[in-house]
Structures are given as C-alpha cells and as structure tokens.
Design goal:
The protein is α/β, with parallel strands linked by helices. It folds into two domains: 174 residues, Aspartate Aminotransferase, domain 1 (Alpha-Beta Complex); 273 residues, Aspartate Aminotransferase, domain 2. It is 43% helix and 15% strand. The protein is built from 17 helices and 14 strands. The protein has a seven-stranded mixed beta sheet with strand order 4-10-9-8-7-5-6, with helices on both faces. It is globular. It binds 3-[O-phosphonopyridoxyl]--amino-benzoic acid.
Length: 468
C-alpha cells in the first residue's frame, strides 16, 4: 500500500463553485450545495481519505460499501493499466469473449455457494437486479407458469435506482418520486426487531417476521408468485441485522411454495459479513445472487448475477437466445480489476480475518459504545455495525424514547462525525459503519474513539438546543 504523504494544493472554493454550478449529484438536495459547498475528496490510502483542505478522515463507509481492500492498492492499478494496454474493450455479445471475463467467471463460480456455475455480467448493482427481474420472468414463462409474475420484496429494502431496482426496493421516498412503480412487485415488512419486535425475543421475532412472507404468498396465491428478494443484511435501509431464525424460515417458506429466492449481495458479498457471500453466514440457499461493489472494491464499476443451476439450466437448455445484455457486460478492464481484488482478499486472508478477529472485535467496540447516554441499541455482523440514537434510554430497546425525526439528530451527529474525522452514515437516527475489511483491531479502536467523541459533541449540541 502506498502512502506518499504528498498533498497537491486545491482551490476548494473554485471546485465547490464549479461543482454546485454543473454537477447534478445522486441523492442530493442541490439547494444545500449553494449554502455549503460539497466536501471534495482528493485521495485515499488504506482506510483513510483526504479532502481538498488536506483533512484526513477515517472512511467508516468504504466509499459507499465498496472499498473492501482499502485505498491505494497499486497492484489493482497495474492490473487495470496492463489490461487497458492489451485490450481496453471488447463486447461479449454474439459469441465473442475475452480473457479476464472468462477467468473471473470461473473464479466467481468457484467462490460461490454450491450449485452456482454461471455468471451474467452487468455494470452495476441496479443493472444486476434489472437482469434478475428479466431472468425470473423468463424462467417462469419457460416453465409454462406465466402467471408467476409477482416478486415479493421488503419495505426499506434498497435494490438500486433504475426503474426495476427502485421498484424492487422499498424506499417510500423513491416510490413517491417515480410515477408508476413497476407492476408485479409487492413489499412486506422488514425484520427490524427494534421497531417491530415488541413483546418477543429476537428468535421469536425472526420467525414472526418471516411469517409475513407466507401471509403474502397465501394472499396472492402461490401460483402467482415468482420470487422473493432480500439483502441478507439490509444496508442502505440502516443495517437491519435480522434475528438468526429469520432467513432459515424464509428459506423454508420459499421451498414450500417453490418460489425462487434471490439474495441481493451487492453489499454483503465479498467478505463484508465474514464469508464470500452473506447468504452462507445467514443460512440462505439462494437461486440467484446479485453482486457489485466489493467485487472490484469499487476501483472500477462492475456488477453481475450469479445464476444457480435451477434457473441457468432452464434458460440455457429451453430458452435459446436471452434477449438481454449491456455494452459493458464482461468489460475486460473491470474483470481484470476484480481478479486482482479477489487475489488480494484471498492472499491476505481478509475474509478469514473478518470472521475470526476484526468482526468480533467490532462487535465488542459497538457493545461498548452502547453505554453512551445517547445510544439505545447497537449491533454488528462482520464488518457492518449500527447504533440507534435515542432521547431517553429505557430498560429494554422497546422502552427507548426516540427523538422526533423532524429534529434531524442523525444528520447533526453525522456532521460531528466528519468533524471528528470519521465517515459514519445516518439513516434517520441510526448511525452506521461498513469499514474497509483491511481495518485492524487497533484501527477499530481509533474509529470507536472518534465515534465516541462525536457522540459527546452531539449530546452537548442536542442538550444546548433543548432537544432532550
Ligand atoms: N443492491 C443493494 C443491496 C445496494 O446496496 C444496489 C443494489 C445498487 O447498486 P448500484 O451499483 O446500481 O448503485 C445497492 C447500492 C446508501 C447507498 O445510501 C447504497 C447504495 C447505493 C447508493 C447509496 O447507503 N447501494
């Protein structure tokens, strides 16, 4: 890993002015940029990023759940440069292929759970989920069960921003802005113990929440249900870690009614939960897996679908040509980056380290943060963790008194996190991290120290502003 320590100087004000004038950002309220310019990130090394004012910030969010092997990996740069020199692009349509895409397909299917022998490449997680919708519909047509059209998803799920991705997702704010949500997609509740598990143990709640799937299947008629889709751990929805009983019960229900199970591993894949795929950790045997982000650690965009034998055999043997694909499906440069990223994950045993050392250590660090007067609940799995800011702590999580959402305490806290030198994401009043998998135990202590400082500053501010 390189650490040059060299910092070019930047004209932050000019960059911010040009940014505000011309760059339409995703998921951003642009009136905000006029009041306060964007923070311009200029470089990264290991678990740290630097802004244009040369402020060092510990990146608790791995870019955006992406940079699993950390910043500054020159071997990925070299692999990409070499591939660009050799063959910067060729398509994989019409019976052509390329070497990195072939090698990566073999690598991914070897790492995947049993029964996965095919990969379909896309450029992003959203395209992966769009591809899955088309594959699922095609599968049931080929099975002579065209009525099986409906895909069941969950409230607060995030499956992307394309029309199909946003429709699969259960984000009310996205649905409200998109006109007609794609037909044939319905949503059930999420396994959020804190907000829906009153009067139950975690295990009881897991079975209860999975039961909402069976209720929905019966309501729709099993003959009309194509698939269920879920993130093993919901990420953008606030790191909702389901009880251990949840996914095995979901699996049982999918098996019982013969419906396809789709795991959206865009965040949970490539080591995040301490295994190559989160499905393995949570007891899911999916038929289709969406992946992106960690496959290249975000160095180059790449996504895809791992297609299990049940679906692949039908598509290939009965389907003929599948009229679907993207110009950048199997992009040689992206695949070369992924191969080197995976080599790093293997050679440095990063996933074993998450499972055996840093994941448990992060859990301990968050358990300690739960003693803070503002924190009503904290949990973690592998290298994702979250804590809930509450106005008053109760005897159990269900007795906590939340802040009025309108006060925006999560965003106040996020601001203090930045000032204290750590990126932590706010989902309402839930503060979350998903740090690079290269983070050491000492660096987890450093991150937790910065988080505690920011919590203290948040507490002081909410007290001073009469919000308690
Ligand atoms: N599935 C999941 C589970 C995701 O987290 C996507 C699909 C879509 O991937 P692309 O590559 O099309 O963005 C994602 C993306 C957030 C945030 O606020 C999370 C994502 C994207 C943007 C913001 O945490 N995840």
């Amino acid at each position: 890993m390189i650490s040059t320590g060299v910092h070019a100087s930047f004209d932050t004000a000019a960059l911010q002015a040009a940014d505000a004038a011309h760059f339409l950002h995703p998921f951003s309220d642009h009136t905000g940029f006029l009041e306060k310019g964007a923070r311009v990130i200029v470089r990264g090394d290991g678990i740290y990023i630097w802004d244009s004012e040369n402020k060092q910030i510990l990146d608790g969010m791995s870019g955006l759940w992406c940079v699993n092997v950390g910043y500054g990996r020159t071997s990925i740069t070299q692999a990409v440069a070499k591939q660009m020199d050799t063959l910067p692009f060729y398509n994989s349509f019409f019976h052509t292929s390329n070497v990195p895409a072939i090698e990566l397909a073999a690598t991914l299917t070897a790492l995947a759970p049993p029964g996965f022998n095919k990969v379909f490449y896309t450029g992003s997680g959203s395209e992966a989920n769009d591809t899955i919708v088309r594959m699922v519909r095609r599968y049931w047509h080929l099975q002579d069960q065209p009525a099986r059209q409906t895909i069941i998803s969950r409230v607060n799920a995030y499956h992307g921003s394309t029309i199909a991705g946003a429709s699969l997702g259960g984000m009310a704010g996205m649905h409200a802005q998109m006109g007609t949500v794609l037909g044939g997609i319905v949503h059930i509740g999420q396994p959020d113990y804190v907000h829906a598990g009153q009067g139950m143990t975690q295990d009881q709640f897991g079975v209860h929440a999975a039961g909402w799937l069976e209720d929905k299947i019966r309501e729709l008629g099993p003959e009309n249900v194509a698939a269920f889709i879920g993130e093993p751990v919901q990420g953008a929805g606030g790191v909702i870690i389901p009880p251990a009983t949840y996914w095995p019960e979901i699996q049982r229900i999918c098996d019982k009614y013969g419906i396809l199970l789709i795991a959206d591993e865009v965040i949970c894949g490539f080591g995040r939960l301490g295994a190559w795929f989160g499905s393995t950790v949570l007891g899911i045997r999916p038929d289709l897996i969406a992946f992106a982000k960690g496959v290249t650690s975000g160095y180059v965009p790449l996504g895809g679908v791992l297609v299990g034998d049940r679906v692949a055999d039908v598509l290939i043997q009965q389907g003929g040509e599948f009229n679907h694909g993207f110009t950048y499906s199997g992009h040689p440069v992206a695949c070369a980056a992924a191969l080197e990223n995976i080599r790093i994950l293997v050679d440095e045993q990063l996933i074993e380290r998450v499972a055996g050392a840093t994941g448990p250590y992060l859990k301990g660090a968050f358990a300690a943060l739960a003693t803070h007067p503002l924190v009503g609940y904290a949990d973690s799995l592998g290298m994702v963790a979250g804590l809930n800011l509450v106005r008053v702590k109760g005897a159990t999580v269900h007795d906590n008194v939340p802040f009025d959402a309108k006060l925006g305490v999560g965003m106040i806290c996020r601001g203090h996190m930045f000032d204290c030198g750590v990126v932590m994401r706010a989902v309402g009043e839930r503060m979350i991290v998903a740090p690079p998998l290269v983070m050491t135990c000492a660096q987890i202590d450093e991150m937790a120290g910065r988080i505690r400082n920011a919590l203290d500053l948040t507490l002081a501010e909410v007290k001073a502003r009469g919000m308690l």
